[in-house]
Design a protein that fits this description.
The protein is 29% helix and 25% strand. It is α/β, with parallel strands linked by helices and 169 residues long. The protein has one domain: Gcn5-related N-acetyltransferase (GNAT) (Aminopeptidase), CATH 3.40.630.30. The protein has a six-stranded mixed beta sheet, with helices on both faces. The protein is globular.
């Protein structure tokens, strides 16, 4: 099994055999855009249901503004210089419950060949822990039906908060 190091340092770790270890690290948008490669497209092709109206085109200006305001954070799963996955999240003050700060995951993705490892779980745990450090009292994840994440969340003591339906107009 591959070892995983969780760190907020951008340094690469190597195990005793000098093979790069997988690490989870806080990142910036600028760094994400450099290392993510084709993962956004892979993610989009796998999960976007309404490709006719949901064309992959990240609104980088909004993401950068959220980063500047400190209302967004992200973790990358890295092995050497290769990005294996990511978790991008927003810290939000709830509009209905003014005393509640919560963390809403925007995107969570791990390359298919690494999904049988604990890499996704490590990204989720790092996200939860960082959200707690930022004062969040609730963590929200969204997922598609019939996906591994939909099966994992109940085992991690998550319950259904809302159900969202969509329809093309």
């Amino acid at each position: 099994m591959t070892s995983v190091t969780v760190t907020n340092q951008p340094n690469a770790n190597v195990n005793e055999s000098r093979v790069a270890e997988t690490r989870i690290e806080l990142s910036t948008l600028d760094n994400l855009k450099v290392v993510v490669g084709s993962l956004f497209e892979e993610h989009y092709e796998e999960i976007a249901l309404n490709k006719k109206v949901m064309v992959l085109k990240p609104n980088w200006d909004v993401y950068y503004k959220a980063e500047e305001l400190g209302t967004m954070f992200m973790f990358l799963a890295m092995k050497g210089d290769e990005c294996l996955g990511y978790s991008l999240n927003f810290v939000i003050n709830h509009l209905h419950y003014a005393d509640l700060d919560y963390c809403q995951n925007d995107i969570l993705f791990v390359q298919k060949e690494h999904r049988n490892s604990r890499l996704g779980l490590k990204l989720m745990r790092a996200t939860e822990n960082h959200a707690k450090l930022l004062g969040c009292k609730l963590m929200l994840w969204h997922c598609k039906e019939n996906t591994p994440l939909n099966e994992i969340l109940p085992r991690l003591n998550y319950g259904v908060q809302d159900i969202v339906y969509s329809k093309e107009l």
